[in-house]
Amino acid sequence: xxxxxxxxVTFRHMTAEExxxxxxxxxxxxxxxxxxxxxxxxxxxxxxxxRKLTERAGLKVVAYGSYYRVGEQNDFTFxxxxxxxxxxxxxxxxxxxxKLASSEANEEYWNDVxxxxxRIATAAKEENIEIAFEFHKNTLTDTNxxxxxxxxxxxxxxxxxxxxxxxxxxxxxxxxxxxxxxxxLSHIHVFHWGNGEKFxxxxxxxxxxxxxxxxxxxxxxxxxxxxxxxxxxxxxxxDDAATLKEIxx
Length: 249
Fold this sequence. Notes:
By secondary structure, this protein is α/β, with parallel strands linked by helices. It is built from 8 helices and 10 strands. It has one domain: TIM Barrel (Alpha-Beta Barrel), CATH 3.20.20. The protein is 41% helix and 20% strand. The chain has an 8-stranded parallel barrel with strand order 1-2-3-4-5-6-7-10, surrounded by 5 helices. A two-stranded antiparallel ribbon has the order 8-9. Helix 1 (16-25) links the parallel strand 1 and strand 2.
């Protein structure tokens, strides 16, 4: 089943309390909490507070959106990320597959990302938590082929991939990649952009209905979550939330 949600970094400038109120008012089901602002990496007290806020509102903690760059030197450790995810009771930790485009990465870099992915997946597995790669440019998951290659090399049962429409692909290419990653699909980030500009989600309604037809073929439950809205507008967010629910239904 597909549920609706919000990525908290959509409203980075708001407090966690305000994000919860907005999500509830929009009639969405859950929140992916970001590690850069609302639930800082390693701050378990804050994570517990945000978890309670979310649960009291009748919402689901969908995931912990960390900014851990796999295979890189980070300003925080994965152990801190994992502690926050546990305190948040997040079933999934989102991570980034390095910080190099797949076309620029040599075999040594690939090995660094793969080995670190296996390390963090092993640690997360002990806590019954999944790892999911952000599907994003300038990482090893920036193309359909590289994303599949990384998942294949890591080959851990609790490692999956998010999906979002790449700005470097057309609709047909996006659908092809989505179909290929379907067995290992985690959550979906939903937005409608063009040439770096944000548009109302309603303008991408037909496009997203095509993606959702594919996503619904995947087994299990997952969340389709709004990520960013035009002009950071609350009114636009409510409109996009209504469109998201239409897409899912």
